[in-house]
Design a protein that fits this description.
mainly alpha; about 55% helix; rod-shaped; disordered C terminus
């Protein structure tokens, strides 16, 4: 077996990668156990799977499987070392007696075994947390999942349970906020399908304002295009004041919000929201699901950035990850409110009314060939907003 103390090659960069601090902690712990097998009693919480090096994990598993020798007998002859080597070789054939002796020399102080074990557990927690964050981020791009929202919420629950478990293993300490810069928020899906659904929502909400007023779970931040978000705010303002809602009143409100310019004429804006199809609740749930996926990906990427920073302690990882999950939890609460069927109120003593189900997707025959007139480009509400053709 190659010497575990030598640097290993990384195909992604030039030259060898130096061993990380946890590598020396693993060597020091194994050396301490080879010197004093009775130290196994002080590290009961450590498992072979916590080791990052496969050979080290095999050695530790062999040590746990064998009964520790008496101190006097162990001091006279290295019988236990030979037994450990023999038990570990089936899992790590490259192990040698010379490497076991190098582990003994790598241990600064055998009495610090419990501290070395705590270091190994902390690094394993960081690696496992990163794996959970990767799964959350990858779940948002899985096009084969029948219900992507359910999949990512399951991954978020698994990540939350892991954080709760870590919190019970590592004691908190002052200054627990990570100083790692936040990862950039992923770009919104501005494909034609997403933008078409936003236009259909606006048009359907204007056509059915009574249904729109019950959609308190939808927010302007859920829209991918700033112009659509601004029109949503105009519509919400009208509904909040109890004013009449139609294409003309929305256009008048849009004028006061500064949405009209040389890039889009009033007639274009009216046509943009004049083709209602289906229920606004259906399109609203579609938008909210996209927002949920985007926020889940942002959460996964931010937790990955925290775990990539080796300066963060276990409790800093826990605190930073929980803060990242808080934003996803807010969107999740609104998603669950939208996805839960509503039950009309009933009078006392009367039979319970059946739950009202959400309107399904419109029939293909009901979809217009184009949900809006062709406009060269929208006004740019913010820097970096590209031209979008509203035709489907």
């Amino acid at each position: 077996m190659p010497d575990s103390t030598s640097p290993q090659l990384d195909p992604g960069r030039e030259g060898p990668v130096p061993p990380q601090p946890v590598h020396y902690a693993e060597q020091a712990l194994l050396g301490a156990l080879l010197l004093d097998p009775q130290q196994l009693k002080t590290i009961a919480a450590l498992e072979p799977g916590h080791f990052g090096d496969h050979s080290h994990a095999a050695l530790f598993a062999a040590m746990r499987a064998l009964p520790p020798p008496a101190a006097e007998a162990h001091a006279r002859e290295p019988v236990w070392l030979n037994a450990v080597l023999h038990a570990a070789r089936p899992q790590a054939p490259g192990l040698s007696a010379a490497y076991l002796h190098s582990l003994v020399h790598a241990c600064p102080w055998a009495g610090h075994a419990a501290t070395y074990a705590r270091m190994i557990r902390a690094d394993h927690a960081r690696r496992t947390l990163r794996l959970h964050a990767q799964r959350l981020a990858q779940a948002t791009t899985d096009t084969t999942a029948p219900n992507p929202a359910i999949t990512i919420l399951a991954e978020a629950d698994a990540l939350t349970r892991f954080l709760d478990d870590l919190a019970g293993q590592f004691a908190p300490h002052p200054g627990s906020l990570p100083r790692t810069p936040l990862a950039a928020i992923p770009a919104w899906d501005t494909g034609e399908e997403a933008l078409s659904e936003e236009r259909l929502l606006l048009a359907s909400a204007i056509a059915h304002p009574d249904e729109f007023t019950t959609m308190r779970w939808l927010q302007a931040d859920d829209f991918a295009l700033p112009l659509h978000a601004a029109l949503f705010q105009c519509l919400s303002a009208l509904a909040h004041r109890g004013d009449p809602v139609d294409t003309v009143t929305v256009l008048w409100e849009a004028q006061h919000h500064g949405l009209l310019s040389a890039d889009i004429a009033p007639a274009d804006l009216m046509n943009l929201v004049s083709t209602p199809v289906g229920s606004p609740e259906y399109w609203g749930e579609r938008l909210l699901q996209r927002a949920l996926l985007t926020q889940a990906r942002a959460t996964g990427l931010r937790i990955q950035a925290i775990t990539d920073d080796s300066a963060n302690s276990p409790h800093q990882l826990i605190t930073g990850s929980r803060r990242a999950l808080a934003n996803l939890t807010k969107v999740r609460a609104r998603w669950q409110c939208a996805a839960t069927p509503t039950t009309p109120p009933t009078r006392p003593g009367s039979p319970r009314a059946p739950a009202t189900t959400r309107a399904g997707p419109p029939r293909v025959a009901d979809l217009p060939a184009s949900t809006a007139p062709r406009v060269t480009r929208y006004p740019h509400p913010g820097p970096g907003q590209h031209a979008v053709r509203p035709g489907r």
